[in-house]
Amino acid sequence: MIIEKIEELKKELRKNRQENRTVGFVPTMGYLHKGHLSLIEKAKEENDIVVISIFVNPTQFAPNEDFESYPRDLKRDSELAYQSGADIIFHPSVEEMYPRDSSTFVEVTGQITQVLCGKSRPTHFRGVTTVVNMLFNIVEPYKAYFGQKDAQQVAVLQKMVTDLHMNVELVVCPIVREEDGLAMSSRNIYLSEEERKQALVLNQSLREAEKLYKNGERETKVLKQYITEKIATMPLAVIDYVSIYEYPSLKETQILSYQCLIAVAVKFGKTRLIDNVIIG
Ligand code: AMP
Predict the structure, then answer these.
(1) Which residue out of 25, 26, 28, 29 has the highest number of ligand 1 atoms within 8 Å of its CB and is therefore the one to mutate?
(2) CA 220 / ligand 1 centre spacing (Å)
(3) What is the pLDDT of residues 154-192, one digit of tens each?
(4) Terminus-to-terminus CA distance in the chain, angstroms?
């Protein structure tokens, strides 16, 4: 069932809750791939009803970013979502989510939203936390499913849920990759053949850094330099960041002693790709 109106979705879910059915929720921007589908499958395992939202959220895109051109294909998405176990697809319009007089934002402040993607995309996380908050208020899920692919997003959303005492459990699912290691992303379709080939360096350099860590390397500087040099061997790669932080706090660290996130963001042509690994 595809629902476009907030009130209609609330009504449908109220019915389900009255019958004591648990609701699992998977927020997405659509153009689904196996990464999204793994979240739907996990949600289906753990809940009676699975709601997936497909909404390209304008407030998380800066004016110079790809909001307009972001790939959209509801027909294909709905088929894939149903096959993976989704019961309800929530597909609201921008006007439905943000009526003209809407002026409220939810913002997680501090280092956690200022580093990594928060540095290159300063209004991004405010848009994410605002829309996820709205979606949680509409769906009132028992559990909500997110991918480790967006590791900072998970850390920020968990902080929001904790700080605001929200009644939802976040479930984090592993990164799903193409056979050759490229992390799945709706934006991969933007890549030219050559860019796609060179983009493999993201996962490769992270795997090698992980190996160095396993062999005893503990200096973040050394690992960052290793990854940076490896990525720089690809002529089409333009590095946005290669960073290591304690995870999930995203505090600075010189020496890897706690659980840490190694995260990279690299542009190939117009396409900005991210990838990460958690070590420790
Ligand atoms: P998006 O549609 O890009 O906003 O992503 C929706 C959800 O799918 C987010 O929780 C992402 O972290 C997750 N996701 C995206 N790509 C992957 C992937 N390759 N593996 C696992 N989860 C993913």
Answers:
(1) 28
(2) 27
(3) 999 999 999 999 999 999 999 999 999 999 999 999 999
(4) 43
